[in-house]
Every structure is written in C-alpha cells, then in structure tokens.
Model the fold of this input.
Amino acid sequence: VYTNQTIKINLLERVNHLNYFLALGKLHTGYSRNFDSYYAVSMRCLNKLQYITSTLVPRLKRPVYKNNRMRPTQIKLRKTNILSMHKEYHQVYKLAKSFAANGTPEKPLTATNVKNLQKTYFFFCEMLCAFAIGHFNFTCDENKQIDFARLNMDFTFKGWKLKLKNVKQALTIEVKKDLTYKIALVPTILDDGETLLKSVKADECFICSPYEDGEKDGLLIDITNIESFRRIQQLVLRAMVHADKKRKECPFCKNKLTLNKEKSLPDRPVYECTSCRTEIAEGYCPETGKTYPFTRIAGLAKTSTFGDDEWLAKRKIEAQMYFRNITDLTDEMEIICPHCGKTH
Done:
C-alpha cells in the first residue's frame, strides 16, 4: 500500500539527470507489474489494522491498562466476571481470541536462520549500493566482474573518485576529490548495529535496516521500499559535496556551478547549477562555531502535507527534494544543523 502511494508521489517527477530518471523508471515498472492483484487485499488489511489501532490507542490511559503494566508480561487472558465489567478489557479479550483462532504457527527462529537472514540482507545492500552508485554519476570498468564476497569497486566521475568496499560487517563509500570523505553503512536485521558501528572508522556511520523506526537514526533500506536506492544516492551526494572545495561542477547533474552573488555572503558563498537548480551553500552553527555544507533546490515550490499521516508526510518531503538534501529537514523543509540539531 505504501509502495503504491510512493509511486504515485514520484511518478510525474522530472529531473535533469538521465541515469537518475532511468533508474526510477526501471523500479517503477518493476513495482507496477501485477501490483493490483494484491493491492486490494493489502488495503483491506491496512483499514482493519487502522481500525484496531484507533480503537485501542485512545484507551491506553485508562486505569485498567495502567494497572496491568505492573503485571507479568506473559499473563494469560481469561474472561472472568470482574474484568468482564471493563469494556476495554472485553475488547482486548476478543482481540486475543481472534488472533488465537486465526494465527498461524511460526517456525522457530534459530541461530542458523538469523545468520542466513543477516547474510542475505547484507548481500542485498551490497547489490543496491552498486546499483545506486552506477545509476548516479559514477561509472566503473565495464569488463570488471563484481565479487560481492570480497566487494572492492572503483568508480570515477570527473574529478571525483569513489571506492565501494565491504569491511568486516560494514560497507564503506569513500569519495575523493580535493578532500577525502568516507561514509560507512552497517546493514543489520538485528539490534547490534550500535555495537558494530564502534568498530568502523569513517566520517559518518549509518545503520541500514529493513525496519523503519522513528526513534532511532538509521537508513531505511528495504526491498519493498522503492526509495531505498535513492537514500544511498543521497549519501553519495553528501560525500561528493564534502570532498569538493572548488565548486566548479554540479555533483548531481555534472553541469557547471556558478556563484550566485545575490544569495552569497562575504564568507559563505552560494553556488547554483542553472541546469538542475541545485544550490550548494555553507551554513554556520552559532552554538558550536562550526560551518557545514548544505544543499537545496532553487525556487522549490513546497507541497502541503496537511492531513497526511506522519509516514506519508515524510515520504512527500523526501520526494519534493528529490533526495537532493544532504542535511535533515523539518516538516517545513528548513535545514537542520548537523552539529546542534536545531534550525538557524
């Protein structure tokens, strides 16, 4: 359901980037085939789950729920005379009986199964990285065979050089031009991402996960999410901007950058690409005294996300920026300082 909504958001987008647009076309075509066959079923399941959620969430502050938080987590639900007087508990009991009647037995998740799942997910992230980089600006030797068991690929684009490599349980994207900037990705389906990050040395590190968790900083990389490859391209763009100090070529569409004197400050110039309208500028954090590069799209018309749920609103903001922002954005699409987490 969400994939279909994302396709609708991005289907009519136009950007001056041939490979970028061709990659979107391939993925749109692949996701659209036979999509209607299960879309109706998915929508019915979504509506049913939303009804259950909207019924239970407002009642969570009632005493019958608060008091039961201190009870054992594996308590068995029983239809007793005392609890049956609480209509909230009655609904929970009915829901539990429904799950018990319609549930399917799950296969035990053994250490071997987890290991195989983790290996498969890591392999998927490797392939997606190679796909994303190859459909951005970078090219590699066409005759070179890719060995995903010992991934070590070199890409070039104008003055930029990129190396994609797997190091232990992580993937590193190292970009060189005037400077060197390295980004590390730790693909994991488990909760050991933070531990693995400590063993990786890079300018920035991200946990890749197929699960979207709003409470944790991570990268949503999932085979069912059509935007996954664009999030990797967004990181590549970030590394390209950090590695470049001369600002002569646009890292997004490879055309020339020009200095925008009207928007520039004496110590913080603003460069603009007249072809794809990408702007590269320097921000200043008054709390830390540090500067940071950020990107935006000149003359971007904001689309309202009023009335959308949090997930869909976030997807719309990503789509509006075409994943060309290298810093986080607020709901109003304002730049969030990477040093202090505030807007200036």
